[in-house]
User: Fold this.
Amino acid sequence: MCHAFRVIEILNTDRLLMRPFVEEDLSSLTQLHAEESFWWFPLRRAMTVEESKNFLARVIAGYESASEPALHAVVELSTGSLAGWGGLSVPTFLPQVLPAIEVGWRLGSEFRGRGYATELGAAALEWGFTSLKLDEILSIFEPANVASGRVMDHLGFGLARQMTDPERGLALSVRSLKATDWQSRR
Assistant:
């Protein structure tokens, strides 16, 4: 996979703005990460303030790289609130699938159940397949995370393989969507 990526592209949907994270997002991000349910899969706990700071610093530093896409901050347009994050990234936590690009999402509890994950996932796929010219995008989840599995179904992902998270020993489903299949669904 030798693609030249833009650092990050601002994406808009009808209800969401997907933009690069900025340091000023730390307070809102820390509140989201403090929800146990936000990080239940895979941590089974909330993130600490320090972990959130480190997360934000890693994401912002990732924007400097021209070799891979990075996560977007997801803002609800109607309120201007940081709803969570999502988009495309390299799933470095699962070296067995590399080289690969993954689409993912995490939303605060007050923003779930509104179709936002499907909306931001669709926008990220559009960016990945049209602008970045990717041939395939993965989505990885724990089978117990039924809601994420449903979003992947809506987006057209099929099961590629079952694996185990090497760090936590948890079951993982790796789903795949090829550009040709995405294009035919449109």
